[in-house]
Amino acid sequence: MDKWIQGAIKRKGALSAAAKRAGKSTLTFARNVMARGRGPRGTAKARLWHEAHLYVNVLRKLPRPSRAARIRAGRKAARTRARRRGR
Fold first, then answer.
1. Do 39 and 46 contact (CB within 8 A), yes or no?
2. Are 51 and 14 in contact (CB under 8 A)?
3. Residues contacting residue 69 through CB under 8 Å, at least 6 positions apart
4. Residue 43 near residue 27 (C-beta atoms within 8 A)
5. pTM of the predicted structure, to 2 decimals
6. pLDDT, tens only, 40-59
7. Is a pLDDT exceeding 90 seen at residue 21?
8. Domains of the chain by residue range
9. Which of the 8 DSSP states describes residue 66?
10. Rounded distance, CA 51 to CA 54, Å?
11. 34 and 9 Cβ atoms separated by less than 8 Å
12. CA distances, 17 to each of 8, 11, 32, 73 (Å)
């Protein structure tokens, strides 16, 4: 029961791949898909709508890291980039 979200996601990365093909962010794409409507049951449009609905209503509401944690992560990424450049 701890990892119910992982069990709910059947096609991992499908929504973000579709958003990338459309040239939009995942959240913007998901909101556009939901605005267009669900469509007939069993169609690709309906499946995409359900993926978007899960993303917007569940995944986006998970706790976000604190500001301090985001700053630490940014500094760590900067150190990694500098090391890869050979500095």
1. yes
2. yes
3. none
4. no
5. 0.63
6. 888 888 999 999 999 988 87
7. yes
8. 4-85
9. P
10. 5
11. no
12. 18, 11, 15, 25
